[in-house]
Amino acid sequence: MSREARLERLLDFLHRSPTPWHAVEAMAERFDAAGFRRLDEGEPWQLAPGERVYTTRNDSSIVALQLPRERLHALRMIGAHTDSPGLRLKPNAAQASAGWLQLGIEVYGGALLAPWFDRDLGLAGRVHLRHADGRLEGMLLHVDRPVAIVPSLAIHLDREVNQGRPINPQTQMAPVFLQGGDKADLQRLLLGWLEAQHGIIGAEILDFELAFHDVQPPSLVGVEGELVASARLDNLLSCFIGLEALLESDGSQGALLVANDHEEVGSASTSGAQGPFLGDVLRRINAQLGEPGDEGFIRLIQASRLISCDNAHALHPNFIDKHDAAHGPALNGGPVIKVNANQRYATNSATSALFRDLCREAGVPVQTFVTRADMGCGSTIGPITATELGVPTLDVGVPQWAMHSIRETAGSHDVEHLTRALVAFVNRPRLV
Predict the structure, then answer these.
(1) Rounded CA Rg of the chain
(2) What percent of the chain has pLDDT over 90?
(3) What is the number of other CB atoms lying within 10 angstroms of the CB of residue 26?
(4) How far apart, in Å, are the Cα atoms of 285 and each of 114, 297, 426?
(5) Which domain holds residue 116?
(6) Is the pLDDT score of 1 beyond 70?
(7) What is the pLDDT of residue 183?
(8) The domain spanning residue 127 has which CATH number?
(9) Are residues 78 and 104 in the same domain?
């Protein structure tokens, strides 16, 4: 499979996934096309060895499984998350100022705020409706054109702005939306867009979860296309790579991809890594295809391995001093093993050794990241999932710049590097 074709699929996936709900929908479509069967959590499951199945929760998290052809003894698990930091609308978002309808926002996760100014912003998310017949329904909305902007204040009116002025998201970041508009216009426009996209007529909007997104499309950057630049690379890049690896696997082993929502805000939700979603799925699978009971479930978990994939901080050429001198991953230098002695990452020497051997087998380079001892460290779904399930876990990621910005940058060759390593993982007959 060519690198160029994979990158084309990546750019299309990123463009189609402005929110976690859209990302899960796009992933589900790929699984459907590959012959996976969708399971409803609220219905009985009848599973057969060798099947490929998936299920979703909250429409923003997904678990896909390749069931083994023989009895279930171990699973090769890949983990990622579907959410990214950004600006989300408040429930009563419409507000008027200086002749403009603006939309009040809430910052989701640890977003870099400055890059959101002066960008062409679209609107996306999900809307819940009551139809004329009383039926309730949730619909996805994707306004993929510039409908809003957060304008900067001219430097003439704030001469000290380049000296590090703090940004107040409550008072300074409400996007301008419609000149001369009032609060009723937001409802009118949302209904019009739903009619255009879904043919919905005569419905009433009951509630919504909507977010702004940059409408600049993803692209390959650099003289030789060495870079991928896009919104939400953290962590849709890992979702895409995990999806590609599962679809490319030979189907001989039990394998799983989980992509959780809400990682950027702590993972404590029904569909987050700290919630019961993955555990619920695994218990149902084990009850039918594995050794039933608590002991059987524990044996399954201890025989399995999880590779938690979440992007890593690449060495920035303008800020070299922000890295430990011996642990500065390079873009296009291969996947990064993420290590933290305080368990902000779940890597240990045993799981790290497994991944290094996988990279050797796949013929890809491998790097290591440890944060400076005088700086704090982020975290991932890895330690959370390991804590909830007890599964031996490794944290890895593609190196990137500008994490949590409105537009992030990664190496285009690293997409292939990590995919090949994860295919080797999913196909590996023995995990120990």
Answers:
(1) 22
(2) 94
(3) 19
(4) 46, 10, 18
(5) 86-214
(6) no
(7) 86
(8) 2.30.250.10
(9) no
Is pTM beyond 0.70 here? Answer: yes
Has residue 224 been placed in a domain? no
Q: Domain check: are 254 and 373 in the same one?
A: yes
Q: Which of 300, 326, 315, 289 is nearest to 77 (CA)?
A: 300
Q: What is the pLDDT of residue 70?
A: 85
Nearest C-alpha neighbor of 56 from the set 9, 19, 23, 13: 23
Quick one: 65 and 159 in the same domain? no
Query: In this structure, are 152 and 168 located in the same domain?
Result: yes
Does pLDDT of 216 surpass 90? Answer: yes
> If you average pLDDT over residues 380-387, what whole number do you get?
96
Average pLDDT over residues 286-295: 93
Contact 402, 112 (CB under 8 A): yes
Could you tell me which of 347, 392, 337, 391 has the C-alpha nearest to residue 369?
Answer: 337
The span from the CA of 82 to the CA of 418, in Å, is 18
Asked if residue 380 is part of any domain, the answer here is yes
Which one has a higher pLDDT value, 401 or 2? 401
Looking at 155, 187, 214, the residue that finishes a domain is 214
